[in-house]
């Protein structure tokens, strides 16, 4: 994986880590499933009107939209609305990385190297330690819902890999056309018109303005910028190399939750976060094989004369 792509992956990590604070602000105003529908509807309408079709098979677009869009965010938003702490949500959702590697090996027959597997296991061990430390802050149901969101994300990653869009940003934008209708339908059934109407009628309040600001961040940076870069990385590199970078998102998420929401990580959690970083870096970089000294000497340019 080129150095430029690693830097882009780290940029997405920061954008998505801060995204959880924006989701927290959004859910303070809107019901969770309705908020998910709004997130994508804001993008879908101008996309249909102005953005060219990404020239991919419709089944891949539907797979990405239902997996990455509908499934991931429906489960995640409901989980956070029912008590999943912001920092812990950013952590558990990154189970999408090992899910992606596993599903890529099963369905796409992508080879998983021993180095990648070791790095993922190391990162997952750090993630599991953080989850164990924070387990007392969340009931079992929100954790399960967040894991289902991670599994949905992994299926979306596979659809992206198979689609191989020429224009990743157009692909991400058109993906946003898929989630609104199913999410709004679920919202009407699960949350009801009264709750939806209340959230829309109070947009002028302080909470409403904060919620709109959170929604704007989620749409612009979490979806358009972050997902656009991520999709291009998935197109240029194997899923098993790109996906482990998502394990760094909880490091940013936990840090921002500590700074903004006063969710305080313990020393064990800080050490575990460092283990996560080490595992991702180890698994995403190739081992350099040192050339024999005689070969290196043979390839070294020799002076042609004295000046």
TrEMBL record:
Annotated GO CC locations: membrane
Residues covered by the EamA domain: 7-130, 142-282
Location in or out of the cell: Membrane
Regions that span the bilayer: 7-27, 33-54, 61-80, 86-108, 117-133, 139-159, 171-189, 209-230, 242-261, 267-285
Keywords: Membrane, Transmembrane, Transmembrane helix
Pfam families membership: EamA
Protein's membrane topology: Multi-pass membrane protein
Main localization, broad class: membrane
Recorded coiled-coil stretches: none
Name this polypeptide is given: EamA family transporter
Source organism of the structure: Amycolatopsis thailandensis
